[in-house]
């Protein structure tokens, strides 16, 4: 009879462990999904600001059509890839960031544009949004790291394998221009 109680106790402990590990994995997976949704919120805000910024710049910069088109095309490509994975999305967002950088560099050549209140307000909003995107990316990658660690470390890796939990994908910058430090010039 004592052996039966011991076996029953071990089974109960094992079931409680499986439930706890599974719930922990589900919690981490949901945290990753939430972090991804926060990136989407900030990217949507960026997509909404870009047409206003482009229109403001168009009024001053007639002959910089190539730069304006590059920003618009990069925005459209990034916006259409909303269902893509983190790696593909990171690549497209990196290209958009590089195009925006070129647009803001072009604006430096036009003193009237740099003094325009609309442009300054849009530039400030875009800068704020870029900062929020950076923070959201960092939070997402931190969440993916915790989730991946939980999936790969023993003993939760056994539960993860039983319930087919998949490794999360990091949001990485793949555009070389975004990895370069910004160039500051006071001339």
Number of strands: 0
Specify the biggest β-sheet: none
CATH class: Mainly Alpha
Question: In CATH terms, what is the architecture?
Answer: Up-down Bundle
Low-confidence stretches: 181-187
Number of helical segments with 4 or more residues: 7
The average pLDDT value, as a whole number, equals: 82
Instruction: Tell me, briefly, the overall form.
Output: rod-shaped
CATH T-level topology: de novo design (two linked rop proteins)
Instruction: Assign the CATH superfamily.
Output: LemA-like domain
- Could you give the distance between the termini? 89 Å
What structural category arises from helix and sheet content? mainly alpha
Work out the helicity level.
Answer: over 70%
Radius of gyration: 24 Å
How would you classify the quaternary structure? Answer: single chain
Number of domain units? 1
Strand content: under 5%
């Amino acid at each position: 009879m004592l052996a039966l109680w011991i076996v029953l106790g071990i089974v109960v402990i094992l079931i409680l462990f499986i439930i706890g590990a599974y719930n922990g994995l589900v919690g981490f997976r949901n945290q990753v999904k939430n972090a991804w949704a926060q990136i989407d919120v900030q990217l949507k805000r960026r997509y909404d600001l870009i047409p206003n910024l482009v229109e403001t710049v168009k009024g001053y910069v007639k002959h910089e059509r190539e730069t304006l088109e590059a920003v618009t095309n990069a925005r459209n490509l990034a916006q259409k890839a909303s269902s893509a994975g983190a790696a593909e999305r990171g690549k497209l967002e990196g290209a958009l960031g590089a195009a925006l950088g070129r647009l803001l560099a072009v604006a430096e050549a036009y003193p009237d544009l740099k003094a325009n209140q609309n442009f300054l307000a849009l530039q400030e909003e875009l800068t704020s949004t870029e900062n929020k995107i950076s923070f959201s990316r960092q939070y997402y990658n931190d969440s993916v790291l915790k989730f991946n660690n939980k999936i790969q470390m023993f003993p939760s890796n056994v539960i993860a394998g039983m319930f087919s939990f998949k490794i999360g994908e990091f949001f990485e910058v793949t555009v070389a221009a975004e990895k370069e430090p910004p160039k500051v010039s006071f001339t």
